Structures are given as structure tokens and as C-alpha cells.
Amino acid sequence: MPKNQNTFSSLAALRRSLASRAVHAGWRWMQRAGAVTAQNPGRLRFGAIGEGTRLAFPQGTVFGEAWIRMGGHCIIAEQVTLTAGMMPDLDLGPDPVLVLGNGVVLGRGSHVIADARISIGDDTFCGPGVYITSTNHSYDDPHEPVGKQWPRSAPVEIGPGCWLGTGAVILPGAKLGRNVVVAAGAVVRGEVPDHAVVAGAPARIVRRWEPETGWQPPLRTPAPVPIPDGVTSEQLRGLARLAEAE
């Protein structure tokens, strides 16, 4: 290859590299600037947003925010939809419609659609793509398109400490107790007692904890090893780096 062609090829590669770095740097800046917090709410005016709560940029569809209340230290990932009411610009009355407790985590691409009241308890974690709704289509009239029939709504209550796996669906009227585990892809309706594991569509209880008998059926996995007393977060990060380097 002639020398001038080598030079042009090197310059083109350099330009692509610089452009790539600029794009990534710009995107990181937009992610930081576009995040929503109590101190920097942007255009969104939530009924409440607690200290340490952060909605990652880009946000999904958000409306009815005056009737949405979020506690402290919640993590709302990218492209999460949060809506109160069936459409924007409705007067929903004096009471909140969507309530997130402290420390709630909503994974990327999740949807929380609150036409009737939805409450999510403290320290409930949701994986990506979780769908929680208090409204469902009706299909009573066999001659009318389902999408044109008036939907049915019922409140949803999710207790504290729950874990909702990737792609889980929580339907209107569901009531989950404390520390409930919902398996990935499960479709939940009705009541689920405290300390239960549910799976399937429709979801059924596959494991439950009772004070007298413990977990039934018994757990097949070994108990996690507790972190020794006195170990700092910096030491844990150092161990993680060593494991990655091996």
C-alpha cells in the first residue's frame, strides 16, 4: 500500500476514535445532567421525592406525577414508566395514587401503571422489565373490540422487602405480603402471604417459610456466607478486583 494511503487510513481511524470518545463522553454527561432527583427534578413535579432517590436518564413515560410519591433512596433505572391516572392532565383528587416506599428499586424498562392506587413497600427490588398495573382490559362484550371496552381497575399492594424477578407481571387486585419472591416471568393475581415464593402463569406458591418448620420444601442451595465483622466496603471492592484479575 502506498505511503499516502497508510497516512489517510491512520487519520480516518484517529477521527473515528476521537468521535467515539466524544459521543461516549457526551452521553455520560447527558446521563448525569438528565437524572431526576429531589434537588434537580427537571420538568417533573412529583408529589414527593425523597432524599437520595434518583431516576436515571433517559426516563420512560411519566405523567400524573403530582399523584406519585417516592420515598428516600429509591433507584429508578432507565426507561422506567411511572404513570398515575389513565392519561395526562387529569385531576385525581387529594390522595396519592402511586406510592413507593424507601429504598425501592425498579429495574430498567419496568412499567408501573396506576389508575387505581398502587403501593410498593420499603426495600422492594424489581428486576428489568417488571410490569405492575392496577388496570386490565375487559372483554365482556364479544362484539366489541377488547381495546375499546372500559377497563377494570383494582388497587395493588406490594409489601416491604419483596423481590420481583425479570419480566414479572403484577395484575390488578394483587396483594403481596412481606418478603415475597416472585419468579422471573410469573403472572401474579390475588393474595400472596408473607415469606412465600411464587412462580408460573398464573403464579402459584412453590415454597413458603413458617416459623415452626422453616422453608418448605427445604432450600436446595447452601446458605450465603456472611461478611465477617470489621470488613470494610473498600476491602470488599479490592477482593472483587483480585477475583476479576485471576
Automatic annotation (TrEMBL):
Keyword rRNA-binding set for record: no
Protein name: Acyltransferase
One Pfam family, short name: Hexapep
InterPro entries named among the record's database cross-references: Hexapep, Hexapep_transf_CS, Hexapeptide_acetyltransf, Trimer_LpxA-like_sf
Leader peptide range in chain numbering: none
Keywords: Acyltransferase, Repeat, Transferase
UniProt entry tagged with the keyword Repeat: yes
EC numbers on record: 2.3.1.-
Alphabetized PANTHER family for the sequence: ACETYLTRANSFERASE C18B11.09C-RELATED, SIALIC ACID SYNTHASE-RELATED
PROSITE patterns to which the protein is assigned, alphabetical: HEXAPEP_TRANSFERASES
UniProt family annotation: Belongs to the transferase hexapeptide repeat family.
Single GO MF annotation: acyltransferase activity
